[in-house]
Amino acid sequence: MKREGSHLLFVGTRHSNGKFGPHINLDDERISGLIRLYQGKEDQDRYRFPDLSPLIHVIHNQLEAGFQNQQRYLNQQINQEKNRELAEKYEILFDQWNTASSIENEEKKIPHWKDVISLAREVLIRLREEMPDHVPVKEWNFQLAEKTEQTGRMYTEALLFIIYGRAAYEGSTLGRDPTLRKYCSQLKEKVKTQLAGENRVNLMLCAAFHRQKDYSIVWRLLGMQNQDEANASLLDHIRELQATCVEDNNSYYRHYSSHVQDTYRRNLETPHYTDAQWDMLCVLWNIYDRVCRLEDLLEGLEKHGQKVDFTQTPETHEVMKQLLDQLHTQEISVLPHAE
């Protein structure tokens, strides 16, 4: 999925319950833009696998803050227990990744990386069930957005663990691993669940008539290829509306003559969503976009095969850290994918 169009940026304000909203999504978009193959300056026919460890740490910090917020504001005991259980599973997975990363002997690393992948798959299956089922747009709120965002971030973090682990002990076959594409597809399907039925049409109408600058974000999230397809979809919706003839002084004569001009009216309602509802849409977009980036990375690995260098050096680590620092100082925007 190629990235075009404008960024989303909301200024967050603290609510009476202490939470922040809407979410600031610009950093998430930019971070997602770093998940790609990099062409080596010295050889344009060679590609470098990115050092994902700095990204993993950034997302880890986001997740830790999310766990603290959830623990502070969840009132129902059952939700607190589920949140605590997920947090513990994630902590074990993150610690195992740190352990595997710290071992220098290549042969001794392999079983630890396999443990990372096994733990990550368990977490993914659990998170797949935790992603909210279809909720009407009128019920979207900041609490639902926070739960969805936290779950989606954990899911993509677990995917990064698997990709990192597979690259560490057998990178050459990483792009051909069908399970990774399956996990990506499953998360995208969970996102699409929220966009089914009336949600789909209403989001298109809201963006087209009230949030034109974000129209492209909506139709991309809905799986459309270009704006022409999105416009055609809206036109089809308008055609389906029941048309009623506008009564005027010539109405009587139209029954006897085909030369009398008629006028018809269609009643089109366009919802104008609140910041909380739009915030949920932004969360869904960021999850969907990041999964698309991961899919692009896997496709690049499969396409370029032996041209990809998986060697993780201090230099590759420093490059990723510098790019992250530049993102936070807003010196660079979303980066293009390697072709």
Shape: elongated
Unreliable spans are 1-26, 331-339
- Average pLDDT taken over every residue: 81
Number of E strands: 7
Domain count: 1
H-E order: EEHEEHHHHHHHHEEHEH
- From the helix content, strand content and strand pairing, which structural class follows? mainly alpha
Q: What oligomeric assembly is this protein in?
A: single chain
Tell me what portion of residues adopts beta-strand conformation.
Answer: 5-15%
Largest sheet: 3 strands, mixed
Head-to-tail CA distance between termini:
12 Å
The radius of gyration over CA amounts to: 24 Å
Instruction: Give the spatial strand order of the biggest sheet.
Output: 3-4-7
List keywords for this structure.
two-stranded antiparallel ribbon; about 350 residues; 7 strands; 3-stranded mixed sheet; disordered C terminus; disordered N terminus; elongated; mainly alpha
